[in-house]
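so i finally got all the pieces together for this one. its two components total, 761 residues if u count the protein bits. some of the lines might not be protein, just check the labels. i wanna see the whole assembly predicted at once instead of chain by chain like last time, that was a mess tbh
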Amino acid sequence: MNAPAAPQDLRQLPETLLSIPGMHCAGCISKIENGLALTPGIAAARVNFTAKRVTVTHLPEMAVPQLVEAVGRLGFEAQPVLDPATLETGAESRTLLKALAVAGFASMNIMLLSVSVWSGADGGTRDLFHWLSAMIALPTIAYSGRPFFRSAWKALSNRHTNMDVPISIGVILTAALSLFETIVHGAHAYFDGAVMLIFFLLGGRYLDSVMRDRAREGVAALLKHTAPGALVLNGEGRSNWVDAKDLQRGMVMLVAAGERLAADGVIVKGVSNFDLSLLTGESVPVSLGSESMVHAGTLNLDAPVEVRVTETGAGTAIADIARMMEQAGQSKSRYVRVADRAARLYAPAVHTLAALSFAGWMVAGAGWHESLLIAVAVLIITCPCALGLAVPAAQIVAAGALMKKGILVKDGSALERLAEVDRALFDKTGTLTLGRPEPTNADSLDAREAAIALGLARASRHPLSQALRRALERRAIVAAVLEDVSEQPGFGVTARWQGVAVSLGRPAQADAEMSALAVELKVGDRAQLLTFEDALRPDAAEVIAQLSALGLESGIISGDRASAVAPVARTLGLTAQTGMQPQDKLDAIQRLSASGAKVLMVGDGLNDGPALAAGHASLAPASASDAGQNAADAVFLGDSLRPVVIAIRVARATQRIVRQNFVIAIAYNAIAVPMAIAGMVTPLIAALSMSGSSLIVVANALRLKGAAR
Amino acid sequence: MSGIAILIPIALGLGLLGLGAFFWSLRSGQFEDLDGAALRILIEDETPESDA
C-alpha cells in the first residue's frame, strides 16, 4: 500500500532478493520500502517481514553491491540471498494446507449430517443424508487423501511399509464399505470417520512440513559466506559485478579487504593476509602474494588483491568436499523415523486383528455383511490417528521452543537422532572458539589511548579493527575526535589527534605469524602492540561438563596445528586430534560409528562438512560456512555454546513425550479394539474416541512448550 | 422435509463459499507475510505520491 504507483513496464525490470535480518518493527518496513523507492535506479521494494527479506525491483544497471549499499544508507545491513530458487520452500506446506482445508470443510459438513443420523433420522431421510455424505466424502478422500496414498504406494513398491499403508487401507476400505452400506440402505456409514481421520492426520503432516519450512527459511537467511559474485576487471580499467555462477576461467576478480572469494584462483597482483579458517580450520591468517593459489570461501583480510579465476562452481576445491558430503550423508538418509518403526509393528498387527475378527464372526455364525462391518470398525478404530499425531505434534512444539532459544532444527528426524547421541566431537576454530579475533590486551590502554584507538578502529573495516572497536565499545569508550583520517590498504589507518600523528596498523617489526594477529597503536612516538586471539566461546567449559553429565563423552577434531589446539584442549580437559583433513574427520566419525557410537558432530567450517553429514546428528553455529549449515541438522545463533546442551535435552524430552504419546495411543487401542471386535462400536463411538485420543495426544505434546528453558 | 431441501444446499453452499475464499486468499499471497501484515496496519501513509 506504500509502494508508489507502478509504471507499466515494471514487470520487465530485474528483481533482486536481499535478506535484512535487522528489521524488527513497522517503522523498519516503511523506512526500507519508502527509502528504497526514493533511491534512483530502484523502481519498487516490497518487504516480506516474516522472512525478513525485501524484493527490490530495479533498473538493470543496478548491481547487487549498489543495492546493498542503498539499504546500508537507510541504516540496515543487507545480505544478498544466494539463489532465490533455494528459498522455494512452502510448496509442500501449501499443498497440504489446501488438502487440510478441503478435509476440514468436508468433515464439518459430514459431521452435521451424521449428527442428524445419530439422533434418530431413519428411512428415506437417513438414506438421503448418507448419500449426501458420500457425495462430499468420496471426492474429498480422493483429493485430500493423495499425500497418504502416494507415500503408501511408494513404500509398498519399495517393499516396505510405513505409517501411510495402514492409513490408506483403512480409509479406502471404510469408504468402500460405507458406500456399499448406503446403497443397501444400511444403518451405519463411516464417512465421517474416514474424513475426520484424514483431517487429523493431515493436521499432523502439515505441522511437520511447516516446521521444516521455518527452519529452512531461517537457515537460508543465514547463508552468506560464499560471495555471491565478484567485481571483475574488464581490461580497460573498468570493473563490473559478475554473479558467482557466471564467473569464468581467466577473468580477473578485484577482491577488496573484508570480502570472500567467489571462485578459486591465482593472485596476480597484491599481497594480503587470508583467513582460511572456514576451509582448513586454521585460525591464524596466512599471508599470500603473487602466484599463490586461493580458494573460494577464503576471506581476504588486509589489502585489495587481483585474482585470476582458475576454477569456478563445480570445479572448485569446495566441490570435492561437496562430493564427500553427499556420500557421507547417505547413512543419515537410511535412518528410519520413530513413527515408521512403530508402523512396521503396528500395521501387520492391525490388519491381522481386523482379518481375525472378520473370520471369528463368520465362524460364530454372523453373516458376511455383519462380519465385514465389524472388521472395518476394527480398522477405523485402530487407524493410527493418535499415532500419526503423536510424533509431529511433539516435534513441532519442541522445535518451536528451540527456535525461541535461537536453535533452528531442520526436521523431526533431526530431533529424533539428536536424542540418541552418546558421543560428541567438536571442531575447534569457530565452534569451540568464536572464530573471530578478540583483543587480549586492550584493557592495558589508558582512557586517552582507548579513545584514540576507537576513533581509528572505526574508520576501517579490517577484521582486527572491527574486533577492537567492538571490544572498546563494550567498555563504553567515547571515540576521540580525529582529523585527516585515511586508510592505506595493507598498512592501516593514520590520522591526527590534537596535532599529534596517530596510527593503527601492521606492526613494524614482528614475525609473520605475529603480524597476522596483532596491530600497533602509535600515538606520537609511543608505540603499543595490541594482540588478538581467537577466544573460546564464553561457556565452553561449562557446556562440556554438562554434556558429560548427560552421558556424552566429548573430543576435539581439528584441522588446526597441534600447537594451536593444545591450549584449548587443556582448558577444556578434552582429548584432541589435530591437523586433520576433511577426509580424516570423516574417517574418525565413521570409525566411531562402526564401533556402535552415535556421534554428535559440532562444527562450522567447510572442512567439517563431510563430518557433519556423517555424524548421527550434527550442529553448526550460525557463523558457519554455508556448507556447514546445510549439512548440519540444526543451526544455533549467538556466541554461547549452551544451545548444544539445550538441543540434546529438548530432543530427549521430546522423545519421552513421543513415547508417552505412543503409550496413550496403545492404551486407547487396548480399550477400543475389544469393543470394536465385540461389535459394539457405532460410527458415533468411533468419531468420539478418535477425536478424543487425538486431543489428548496433542495436549500432552504441548507440555514441551517450556522444555527449552 | 421441504425445509431440509432448502437448508442443506444453503449450508453446503456457505461452506463451499468459505472454502473458495480460503483458496483465493491462499493463491493471492495473503498468507505469505503474516507478521508483516500485522505490522503494516501501523504504518502511516505519508509518501508524497499517494497524497493526491
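The two ends of chain B are 58 Å apart (CA to CA).
Residues 2-27 of chain B form the longest helix (26 residues).
anyway lmk what u think
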